[in-house]
Amino acid sequence: MGNLSINDLFNLKNKVVVVTGASEGIGKEVALMLAEFGADLALIARNKEKLKNISEEIRKKNRKVYTISFDLSNVREIPKVVEEIYDYFGKIDVLINNAGVNIAKDEKDITEFDWDKQLDLNLKSVFFLTQAVGKYMKNRNSGKIINVSSQMAFVGYYKRAAYSASKGGITQLTKALSIEWAKYNIKVNAIAPTFLDTPMTKQMFEEESFKKDVLDRIPLKRLAKVEDLFGGFIYLASNASDMMTGHTLVIDGGWTAW
To answer: Is 115 exposed, middle or buried (0-12, 13-18, 19+ CB in 10 A)?
Structure first.
């Protein structure tokens, strides 16, 4: 065990974690979970009212929280947003690039707008936000980047051409930055979930043939829950993963094991 106890390995107390897409879904639930583990949060999302509600929940857990209502596709303003967060907390320990969009369409129906919207938010904004945060992490010679990829970075599926391209880019970006930033002791990893059972996907799975096809491809025979991702986020944000970089942790119930 060396000099670290189990509590030290997974301790997030007083770490400053930036979470994008934090107003709902994975981002919201992960932010609340990290607050339970002692982290202070900077939350970025477009919906100001939802950010206000989640910030109140986090303050009840006696953690610091700072919210910014911002559209990450506005990449030129990203450095100012990151500077604002840094000025408030005085450091940034972890960045979770969670914000993303999936426009499910047959390839023949994908428009330039559909393509750009997914690539701009899912990949372009991730790079430029990571670049801006990395400037501060380099100065401290320490940091953790956690990108949210997808199993679609590893397998093909219907109506996911643009989405898969963006998430494949995330997994490769994770590898590339891990090599460049190893000398700064910055670890860059990703989490790649399978289909999640959330209120946002409920309508999608009302199509029984689609749901059956998805479940037939998952050996564990169920959709993932957001809670299934918690262990991965804790691991990658904490000291427990200090020897891991450039890796995408696939949480897919066995889909990619076929």
So the answer is: middle
